[in-house]
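Write out the 3D structure for:
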Amino acid sequence: MTNLHIALQDGFRNDTVVIYVNGREVYRNTGVTTSLAISRADAFDVAVEQGEVRVEVQVPTRSRSAGVSLDATQTPYLAVEITEQGSLALSRSAAPFRYM
């Protein structure tokens, strides 16, 4: 097992967010709102199997969803944001995210 860190970053405004890893719900929250001071709405860690995993993000308050496959041993950090155009963007990273 390894940890996957998922960070909800820019663009959230009183949203409901549901996140699945390999089909298992690992996060559900309402009222998710980005702190403009640090560009972060929420973050959490989830234990995942080594190797490739599938992450699905749903934001029902905006009728949006997106998914990505990643190897958490190589890229253990995943950023989720809502772009200015209203779409979901998922970005993998090998390094931790920095907040102000």
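The radius of gyration is 13 Å.
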